[in-house]
Amino acid sequence: MELVPALQEPLEQPLKKVLGPATAKVMAEHLGLHTVGDLLHHYPRRYEERGQLTHLADLPMDEHVTVVAQVADARLHTFASARAPRGRGQRLEVTITDGSGRLQLVFFGSGVHKPHKELLPGTRAMFAGKVSVFNRRLQLAHPAYELLHADTEETVESWAGALIPLYPATAKLESWKIGKAVQTVLPSAQEAVDPLPGTLREGRGLVSLPEALLKIHRPQTRADIADARARLKWDEAFVLQVALARRRHADTLLPAVARRPRPDGLLAAFDDRLPFTLTEGQQKVSREIFADLAAEHPMHRLLQGEVGSGKTMVALRAMLAVVDAGGQAAMLAPTEVLAQQHHRSVTEMMGELAEGGMLGGAEHATKVVLLTGSMGTAARRHALLDLATGEAGIVIGTHALIEDKVQFHDLGLVVVDEQHRFGVEQRDALRGKGKQPPHLLVMTATPIPRTVAMTVFGDLETSVLDQLPAGRSPIASHVVPAADKPHFLARAWERVREEVANGHQAYVVCPRIGDEEDDPKKAGKRKPAEDEGDRRPPLAVLDVAEQLAAGPLSGLRVEVLHGRMPPDDKDAVMRRFAAGETHVLVATTVIEVGVNVPNATVMVIMDADRFGVSQLHQLRGRVGRGSAPGLCLLVTETPEAGPARQRLNAVASTLDGFELSRLDLEQRREGDVLGQAQSGVRSSLRMLAVIDDEEIIAEAREEAAAVVADDPDLARLPGLRTALDALLDEEREQYLEKG
Q1: What is this structure's pTM?
Q2: Which residue stretches of 529-642 are H helix?
Q3: Where are the beta strands (DSSP E) in 388-474?
């Protein structure tokens, strides 16, 4: 076993030893690369064939690009300026072409001499810089460049066909400098320890790891790149799935108390009082959950369902089953408002079954208590006592539930609402509260495509609720193009007034609060978004509320809600809105999770293009929760043909959250997909595209499960163990940074 670390050494060498301190420092600071292995896994983003040129017409604005092109002409202009008043200022304008488009390069001042000598018409070179627009034409100002001459030894033919790797680069380090550094460390690739078991690699016809690294950085043909990519994607998918499979395997070894509902107990009494029948989906998911609860090891299940698909009902039935079996159930919500709301809806659904120990309580009743951070001391002491004695079968609360003081009599089930706001570490802290690990049910209203669920929540089994219960109203969504058709916006405010006149209420959502300007640090940091270089700042709650109250919605009661308000004020505003005292609530996305006001029927989202697809879908789910149909208006000033507008049209055209979440992933860069959902996972995906590589991920999950079942400690697979340690170290580092 001791041989493994020795093999690893060449790839663990720090870059500063190999490349020199200056380059190594830039690589560490700007690209997060520290060792030879890191650099070998910094793969080219794409390849240029030396005979082919980049399409200059397709260059993205404001991005750092590398293009291979030919100089069409070069002109030196002199001009007068403050620095050179006698007309001695110099500007070199070079036009480069790729046969289809043209691009202007400009150099100023003393920087013109070298390019003036070197960039002669006909010269081919790689140019790198940031694309900007000047006089309505694309240009690169002061680009770095590297001439491509056919070296004397190299014949023109070999030169013409060779593939030039273009690396993800930064302004501080151009692609070709990274390329040269990679060539320096490439010989070490021979020493790379292969994490894939030999049988798996041969069975799937994958090349070895050293060969894959060689082919990805120095391909001779496009087929080389395909071979390398196929192999490196498998590595990422497989190592990640092994980590998750081991987590699942470890969970199955934990003991848990099997909890089976009594045929004549609390659950049966609850089902008898239900005024409606459960949807098929709810019944199916409930069966999966009850089967898990009956096992001797803890359930770990993810319950996905659209807003309003009846997840709370499914979770409540699981909690009642556990109480029937003598245990307690805890439900954790991300905010106090949401905890209070769950508490209200659970006690309403249970009626006298929630009045255990009280006069008028039913015979099987239990107590349902609320536990949040802002409760008064007496109420809190009372709740803690009910938990410790087992008097309370169900507790609903915020993170306050995880505190040391909270003792349970016999915690059997933990339900976590909105997982993406709740990390693995809190899950573990709560697990520690049971005599044995409790069963765990995680609920999320964010539709997650299957592959992401397999990757991010890979340690959980997944159940999906995809039909809406009867009686839920459809939501009509429309895009309101405020710039092209201002009268559409005027009509939107009329619609809000009509809904209020009919006794309903409205939300108006804005991207920011509007009191940030006092903080110069924040004000300067706002980045221009994708479509226009200099668009106005996003609309703010405070400004919009004021304008609406004075203008199109004058006479209506308009209130504001945002994340920086003191908790008591927030609660008071929400209470007034829920009670129908406020007509229009102008808010930030704080309303995205779990605010339930059935009487709110219309939502106007200002600057809708500044929100993500899934976020818009979540927000929209806040209206149409009662019997009256919902309306969602997406207001935007983006041009009709732009990508932002297409995204909004897609949101308006479907209510299927899974469809939209796929679209969201395709639109966003892969790096954000896994977001903050789980520490570490995201940084480790360099080659794998979660949506496109669905099959690889599914196959890797099966292979990983088989490997772990056969050899849980990976004793026979030292290479895989090493790769896993590297992945988990990275995960741990990220986890610590977050903490």
Answers
A1: 0.64
A2: 541-550, 567-578, 613-620
A3: 392-397, 411-417, 439-444, 461-465
299-321 in b/e form (b: 16+ CB < 10 A) is bbbbbbbbbbbbbbbbbbbbbbb
Question: Which residues make beta-bridge pairs with 173?
Answer: 170
Model confidence at 480, in pLDDT bands (50, 70, 90)?
very high
CA dihedral 418, 419, 420, 423 (to 10 degrees): 140
Mean pLDDT within 128-134: 79
Please state, in angstroms and as integers, the Cα–Cα distance from residue 425 to each residue in 194, 256, 333, 402, 431, following that order. Answer: 31, 20, 15, 11, 10
Copy the structure tokens of residue 647. Answer: 């995204």
Residue type, 326: G
Strand 630-636 to 475-481 pairing: parallel
Quick: pLDDT tens for 294-333: 999 989 898 988 766 788 889 999 999 999 999 999 998 8
What CA–CA distance (Å, rounded) separates 170 from 165?
Answer: 15
How far is 600 from 580, CA to CA, in rounded Å?
9
Encoded tokens for 540: 């703010």
Instruction: Note the pLDDT of residue 492.
Output: 92
What lies within 8 Å, CB to CB, of 405 at 6+ separation is 384
Alpha-carbon distance 558 to 584, whole Å? 5
Q: How far apart, in whole angstroms, are the C-alpha atoms of residue 171 and residue 31?
A: 11
Where is average pLDDT lowest: 70-84, 374-388, 681-695?
681-695
Closest by CA to 119, choosing from 134, 101, 137, 106, is 106
Nearest to 213 by CA among 240, 196, 236, 232: 232
Model confidence pLDDT, tens digit, residues 53-77: 556 767 766 666 777 788 999 998 8
Query: Are the beta carbons of 635 and 607 closer than 8 angstroms?
Result: yes
Q: How confident is the model at residue 581 (pLDDT cuts 50, 70, 90)?
A: very high
Distance of CA 352 to the CA centre of its chain: 42
Mean per-residue pLDDT for 161-169? 75
Copy the structure tokens of residue 398: 């915020």
Q: What is d(CA 63, CA 196) in angstroms, rounded to the nearest whole number?
A: 36
Q: In 3D, which of 94, 96, 100, 95 has the Cα closest to residue 55?
A: 100
481-490 pLDDT tens trace: 888 888 899 9
Share of the chain above pLDDT 70, in %: 81
Could you give the CA distance from residue 624 to residue 627 in angstroms, rounded to a whole number? 7
Among 145-154, 322-331, 657-666, which is the least confidently predicted range?
145-154
Please tell me whether residue 152 adopts helix, strand or coil conformation: coil
Backbone angles phi, psi at 460, to 5 degrees: -120, 145
Tokens coding 484? 């092209």
- Give the contacts of 477 (CB within 8 A, at least 6 positions apart): 620, 631, 632, 633, 634, 651, 652, 653, 655
What does the chain come to in residues? 739
Of the candidates 200, 182, 335, 329, the residue with the CA atom closest to the CA atom of residue 261: 329
Which DSSP string do the residues of 61-116 spell out, in sequence order? TTSEEEEEEEEEEEEEEEE--SSSTTTTEEEEEEEEE-SS-EEEEEEEGGGGHHHH
pLDDT, average across residues 283-294 = 94
Q: Which residue has the tokens 């405010």?
A: 493
pLDDT score, position 415: 92
Cα dihedral sign, 442-739-40-180: positive
Q: Is residue 252 within 8 Å of residue 292, measured between CB atoms?
A: no
Burial of 336 (0-12, 13-18, 19+ CB in 10 A): buried
